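help with this record:
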Amino acid sequence: MNSNLLQTPIDYLKGVGPNRADLLRKELGIHTYQDLINLFPNRYIDRTRYYKIRELQENISEVQVIGRIVHLKTVQQKRGKRLVATFVDDTGEMELVWFRGHKWIRESIKINVPYVIFGRCNRIGHLFSMPHPEMELLADHERSLRTAMQPVYPSTEKLGNKGITNRVINKLMQQLFTETGGKFTETLSQPLLSELSLISKPVALFNIHFPKSQELLAKAQYRLKFEELFYIQLQLLIKNQIRKQKIKGYVFDQVGGQFLRFYNELLPFPLTGAQKKVIREIRNDLGSGAQMNRLLQGDVGSGKTIVALMSMLLAIDNGFQACIMAPTEILATQHYNGIKELVKKLGVNIQLLTGSTKTSIRNEIHEQLQNGELHILVGTHAILEDKVKFHNLGLAVIDEQHRFGVAQRAKLWHKNTTPPHVLVMTATPIPRTLAMSLYGDLDISVIDELPPGRKPVKTVHRYDSNRLKVFRFLKDEIAKGRQVYIVYPLIQESQKMDYKDLMDGYTSIEREFPKPDYQVSIVHGQMKPADKDYEMDRFVRGETQIMVATTVIEVGVNVPNASVMIIESAERFGLSQLHQLRGRVGRGAEQSYCVLMTGHKLSNDSKTRLETMVRTNDGFEIAEVDLKLRGPGDIMGTQQSGVLHLKIADIVKDNQILKAARYYAQQLLKHDPALATEENGVIRYTYGQLSKYKNIWNYIS
């Protein structure tokens, strides 16, 4: 059909008009016929069955009955009155009741004419009663497009109050199909339809709104979900393809002295198979002539920093500088100290730049950066400042990338005439399905193996009533020379309350672990940076055995001797946060423990989170559970979640369809990168059309 018809403003659809059009635009974002067609039902009510009156039971929620109204009466009540109709079929009688709208209902009802009624039943005495039923003349019901599987559309309170009910939306949808003749342009190629046994676009759209059967509804849903995810994957893959063709990168073709000496002589432990695989992938990128844009996922402690360092040494061997940017000063300092220790025998010049770097040191860093003396710069957002200029930045590493906005990451691109290679790292495992949708335009590497000698952290859940036993366990561990973290939640909205929790906890810990036998550090967000650093430092040096803290220690503290993590009020933490906190222990060769402390009152979601933590240490499995509990938008934060405004697909429930969509999009581009063949003309055209809808497609950073 003429696609221009679908761009007709919704105001012009019969039954809409300016007022309804305004409401549909504001409440549901429906501006055109196309938008209305793409308003897909949330669920369906099965109206395949017609009940006889004698079959009605009290526990049946919604029923439909065919019968006739034989009598109408108005009954006085304490307040106002009600209209009561006697409704009969060949097995018995029941009552229909209205408490408002009597006048127009009485005028519109036809006595002794067959109706189909639909609604919820109550038993009053020996009779069943249906308040405010949906009613339709049997003759209209049989002629109507409305089908046995009745769609229920998304709505808002405002639409309901203004009379735009589900039934009204259904009638508008019927009108739209009448005006368009149900002739919609196919959007997938014939080979794809045949290979996947997909129904056509017109049949799918008809059956999503007016399903003829459960089977056809399932086929319509699959077809439309596949199409939506297929075009998203195509967009991501084409963007990656174009970027690799257009954006040239520096070629690092030398594997020189710094890299080889570090690999052969200075590695603190042998690389795992996963680390070797990722370094090979990065080396291929760096030698390809295209700009690298790679996401490196790896659980806490999996050895991402070593991989990043070796990539930076490749840059240095090829005459370039490198930088690593972290979201917090603590984490940046941690990287700086760790990398400095690893490269001290190589003569690599490395500096740290954060918000609290003194002006004199800052000036020195700026000078060394510009004359090329400085090889690696480690820092926070301070690296992004305009006055920070590199001699020739070849590789930028971004740690915990989800903490940086798109604009901030883009600033790094302009630190050299040709954009530097970019390696983004995250210790927050992103579920594979989500990674495919959000980062499908990035190349993804995964380190899914822990270094040798690391023992999985043992995790247990304990109630507050077991606290004394937990304290005894801590004393035993401290007697073995181990150290302990005790973490309290800090939730922004209630800082005062949380601060009180922390201070109460600190007081009780000091009482239970008195000086001089025990030393306790405390760290929280309201402390001055110098005080925080002093307390952290005491713990790192082993002067204190217990660190009482808020989640400021979530990232950035590496104390191999700390073997116990106690998380207080664990039910108040999200899964990924619990997993990150647990990753603070288990960094040495000794067995480590994580104890989740809670009260007895727990929601179902809290129970699921705690059970998951106790059951597994696998960050990806934890991320999948988190995705099911919280949904994609919450996990990625608002700045990233635009991609997930899907019309019909759900990346959690439909992950198999997503995988299929990505596979077929990859195969398509492999065999026809420009979508130039005649059979792919329809995909090329549809892709071009969809790319114009910025609100749907302009989601890629």
Q: What stands out?
A: The radius of gyration is 32 Å.
